[in-house]
Design goal:
Blueprint: H1 2-53, E1 57-61, E2 64-67, H2 72-83, H3 86-93, E3 101-103, E4 106-107, H4 108-132, H5 139-154, H6 158-161, H7 168-191, H8 196-199, E5 210-219, H9 236-250, H10 274-281, E6 299-307, H11 316-323, E7 334-336, E8 339-350, H12 352-380, E9 383-385, H13 387-392
Antiparallel strand pairs: 1-2, 1-9, 3-4, 5-6, 5-8, 7-8
Helix pairs in contact: 2-4, 4-7, 5-7, 7-12
Length: 400
């Protein structure tokens, strides 16, 4: 009987121990769950922190890896340039420059990204080629770079200064590479054997003869339209009045010391007197400005030019008369379907337009030759672009 009681007692003790163990397990469950959650959160923070802080390779040029921080000043510069047009795009198109389509299937953000990628790649390739050929910074370049770095840092906000890639060290590194790469390219371009005669044979000096003029005019445009939206023509009487206005100015042209100042200077808009303003404030009478003179319909157009082959400057009849003028001569009153004019010839045989076309042709040829040379550089110096990382860059939201 006692043996039976011991067995029962032992069974009861086992049940009590089991209940205590289950209770302990149940009481530890919340603690275990919290610990697991905290552990997972820490792991996530570590992973995210690593992703944010790890060096992001954007390019490998030759044996040199280029990270995002190495080109952050390029990113900043592009965002500043495009960002300066943001208000204009919003007012004109109702959309930010970063979202606006500025090319076929390309937004402003895409364009800025492509620009930075191309600029950075070219600088790194040309810089490495220049270093291979013994190029180093000159003392003058070093001095200029230090000034540029100081100016660049001053232009940054406090928040921007905390961006690692916008440190003085990083900005200086970019500017040093820029200076060497640009000087190397300039030296190459200057050394190209350009056959100017052959290159510019199709550029006509006769067709590009430029006439530099200054002139005064009155327009026959009324600025009014009829019910159908057609311009309302000016009456002969109104044209006659305009002619008198221009003749009055023309009468002073021959004797004037300065042909550009035949019209009276515009006077500032008059303001009510202090006494009149006080009276208006006291409710005695409304302050009104003094009457202003009617503005002259005569317009001055200075430093204007056209070329021999041009057919848009005034009418053909007027152009023919102007082309026949000697330097410093003042024409008679001229008329075409748009108004009356008198013109002063400044230079009837300027080569400015011809010289510009020649220079443009030479520049284009040098661009072509250096592009060919750059292609050879990229055959020699391997470039590996990390497209995946470039595509992640959201221009307009990086340094601004």
């Amino acid at each position: 009987m006692n043996s039976g009681r011991r067995i029962i007692r032992q069974e009861d003790n086992r049940k009590k121990k089991k209940r205590k163990k289950n209770q302990a397990t149940d009481s530890n469950a919340p603690r275990i769950i919290v610990t697991a959650i905290v552990t997972i959160a820490v792991i996530i923070m570590i992973v995210v922190g690593y992703e944010q802080l790890r060096p992001i390779r954007m390019l490998t040029v030759g044996n040199e890896k280029v990270y995002l921080s190495d080109l952050m000043f390029d990113v900043f510069s592009a965002e500043q340039t495009y960002g300066s047009m943001d208000e204009f795009y919003k007012s004109m198109n109702g959309v930010s420059v970063w979202d606006a389509e500025i090319g076929e299937g390309m937004t402003g953000s895409d364009a800025a990204r492509n620009e930075v990628e191309e600029t950075t790649t070219k600088r790194e390739v040309v810089y490495q080629k220049a270093v291979q050929e013994g190029y180093t910074l000159t003392d003058e370049e070093k001095e200029t770079i230090e000034k540029d770095v100081d100016e660049a840092r001053k232009a940054l906000t406090v928040k921007q200064k905390l961006i690692g890639g916008l440190s003085a060290k990083k900005i200086r590194a970019i500017k040093e590479k820029d200076a060497i790469a640009k000087r190397y390219e300039e030296d190459k371009r200057e050394a190209y054997p350009i056959d100017q005669a052959t290159l510019t044979a199709d550029i006509s000096k006769e067709d590009l003869r430029q006439y530099d003029v200054q002139y005064y005019s009155v327009s026959f445009q009324t600025g009014e339209t009829d019910e159908e939206g057609n311009p309302v023509p000016m009456s002969d009487e109104e044209k006659a009045e305009l002619k008198k206005e221009l003749e009055a100015v023309y009468a002073t042209a021959e004797t004037a010391e300065d042909f550009t100042k035949l019209l009276p200077e515009e006077e500032p808009e008059p303001t009510p007197s202090a006494e009149a303003t006080e009276e208006a404030e006291d409710g005695e009478e409304e302050a009104t400005p003094a009457p202003t003179a009617t503005p002259s319909p005569v317009t001055y157009s200075g430093d204007t030019n056209f070329i021999e082959s041009e057919d848009t400057f005034l009418s053909e009849e007027v152009r023919t008369k102007v082309k026949a003028m000697e330097n410093d001569a003042i024409s008679e009153l001229l008329e075409d379907e748009n108004g009356y004019y008198f013109v002063k010839m400044i230079n009837n045989n300027s080569t400015e337009r011809y010289d510009t076309e020649v220079e443009n042709a030479i520049t284009a040829e040098k661009d072509r030759l250096f592009a060919e040379e750059y292609d050879k550089m990229t055959d020699e110096i391997e470039v590996d672009t990390n497209i995946e990382e470039w595509d992640k860059l959201d221009f307009g939201n990086i340094t601004l």
